[in-house]
Design goal:
18 strands, binds 6-O-phosphono-beta-D-glucopyranose, six-stranded parallel sheet, 2 domains, alpha/beta, Rossmann fold, disordered N terminus, eight-stranded mixed sheet, Dihydrodipicolinate Reductase, domain 2
Length: 519
């Protein structure tokens, strides 16, 4: 894994400049390109990570010139500066950096279903190799709907664009959703592996681009303090939360067939679970890390249909108010059926059946339109014995928590009991807090910079291997099946702007536990 200091990045350490290459974005006119991919490239230019010979080729259906494409992107970048919004925040655009990038943009109109598109792309790339020195190294970024993943990969293969020879590399970045269940993920893997070798495939999960997620490994394995107590002897249970205050944001069509479980759990929440629960890898080598991550996900105990129905809760938001603004019910959103059975919230209890975690439940929850935006991993330690405090004014002991705050207010907190000053024995729960912003000068980032740069330098540590993806789907498949076989009648069942449905509270109450408060 490549993690260098920001100071070195700003200084433009030549060792950190990516090798000459052309990056091709399929879906050049799409939302992802505008919101994340291009702003991240701009950040990489500012950090001096891209080589002089870098070229960016946009491919999309719409007929336009390179100038029109880059003009549209310029307008969007300027809009980010003026209005804010999105994942990209800057007060001012560095015009020199932006022009550096736009000067390197070309555009090719093409239909991904048409083999001619890939032939023309091949000719174009060969020309860039000659004129710009891109050296035959190509990074193909599939920022398109998932139905095009296979088509695009086989199109590249048929045009000879996936062949690596004489030290040239050809890599393909694949966005989520990677399949919609275990069978489709397996089929997609099998399909793309006909054309590409595993080492050429970079399956993105943008949670791994978050510094706070990467830091979970550093926290656990770079400190002598925590790992000895990081197991069932000391940990009571773990709560993983990804609560959002956004709704489905004009994505009704996508969300109707996806739902909260598919959208967030086998990918993002399982990344958090894997980072928290994996065994120590022997190095930062991509495969050493990924093998440990796959193992822990594979250790999630399979559930029968009855267990899945008991251990997983689904819910859908009704109208309400989020952060003081009125919000429509999910069923009133554009492109959503008036009787939709899609869940916008899910919670579940999982058991990781290995020596470290047997008997330690992992509770996961995620939802749209919740009361507060919060992504965190909360580790609850065993209660201390009470004997010593019998006969004092202390009625109960406060639990110890370690909270890894992924976003916002990135940091780590450790909660423990302290004696309240005074003549009698009284306890209070206090917290030691580490906030990233107090210690590190974080460069503006969308979270994609590291991921894109890592593709260019061939570091796959932060990407999902086929077995990681399939393990994720395998673990949630019993829930998907149980829900499909047992449609729920009581949607909607939580108000927009709330903490979620009562059924989620009951899930923990059955075990004598409660969720950490969101508000
Ligand atoms: C995406 C999901 O993958 O992750 C979205 O499709 C979700 O529905 C988003 O809002 C959450 O990411 P982040 O980085 O905003 O927590």
């Amino acid at each position: 894994m490549t993690r260098e200091s920001d100071a070195a990045a700003v200084a433009g350490d030549s060792a950190m400049v990516a090798p000459p290459c052309a990056m091709v974005i399929f879906g050049a006119a799409g939302d992802l390109t505008k919101r994340l991919v291009v702003p991240s490239l701009y950040d990489l230019v500012r950090a001096k990570r891209l080589p002089e010979q870098f070229r960016l080729v946009g491919v999309d259906l719409a007929a336009k010139t390179a100038a029109e494409w880059s003009q549209g992107l310029s307008e969007m970048m300027n809009q980010f500066v003026v209005q804010g919004g999105g994942e990209f925040h800057v007060d001012q655009l560095d015009q020199a950096a932006w022009h550096w990038l736009t000067d390197r943009m070309t555009y090719l109109q093409g239909d991904l279903n048409d083999p001619g598109t890939y032939r023309r792309l091949g000719d174009h790339l060969a020309e860039l190799d000659k004129k710009a020195g891109t050296a035959g190294n190509y990074l193909f970024y599939l920022a398109v709907a998932d139905r095009f993943f296979s088509v695009a990969v086989s199109g590249l293969g048929a045009a000879g664009l996936a062949n690596e020879q004489q030290g040239q590399w050809r890599r393909v970045v694949i966005e989520k959703p990677f399949g919609h269940d275990l069978a489709s993920a397996r089929a997609l893997n099998a399909d793309i592996l006909k054309t590409l070798s595993e080492s050429q495939i970079y399956r993105i999960d943008h949670f791994l681009g978050k510094e706070t997620v990467q830091n979970v490994m550093a926290l656990r394995f770079a400190n002598g303090l925590f790992e000895p107590i990081w197991n069932r002897d000391h940990i009571d249970h773990i709560q993983i939360t990804a609560a959002e205050t956004v709704g489905i944001e004009r994505r009704g069509k996508f969300y109707e067939t996806t739902g909260a479980l598919r959208d967030m759990v086998p990918n993002h929440l399982f990344q958090l679970l894997a980072m928290t629960a994996m065994e120590p890898p022997i190095s930062f080598d991509a495969d050493a890390v990924r093998v440990k991550k796959a193992e822990v996900i594979q250790a999630i105990r399979p559930m029968s249909e009855a267990e899945a129905l008991q251990n997983a809760v689904r819910a859908q938001y009704a109208a309400g108010a989020v952060l003081g603004k009125p919000a429509n019910a999910y069923r009133q959103e554009p492109d959503v059926a008036p009787d939709s059975a899609t869940e916008t919230f899910m919670a579940c209890k999982l058991n990781v059946d290995n020596w470290r975690w047997a008997g330690v439940p992992f509770y996961l929850r995620t939802g749209k339109y919740m009361t507060r935006r919060l992504t965190e991993i909360a580790i609850r330690f065993h209660q201390a014995p009470f004997t010593l405090f019998r006969g004092t004014d202390v009625e109960r002991l406060h639990p110890n928590w370690m909270i890894l705050r992924i976003q916002p207010e990135e940091g780590i907190a450790l909660q423990f009991a302290a004696k309240r000053p005074g003549p009698t024995v009284m306890l209070d729960s206090v917290s030691m807090n580490f906030a990233y912003k107090d210690h590190f000068n974080l460069a503006p980032s969308t979270g994609y910079e590291t991921l894109i740069y890592d593709c260019m330098i061939g570091d796959a540590t932060l990407f999902q291997r086929a077995d990681n993806i399939e393990a994720g789907w395998q673990a949630v498949q019993p829930i998907l099946d149980a829900w499909a076989n047992n449609p729920l009648q009581n949607f909607p069942n939580y108000a927009a702007g709330s903490n979620g449905p009562t059924a989620a509270d009951e899930l923990l109450a059955r075990d004598g536990r409660v969720w950490r408060p969101l508000d």
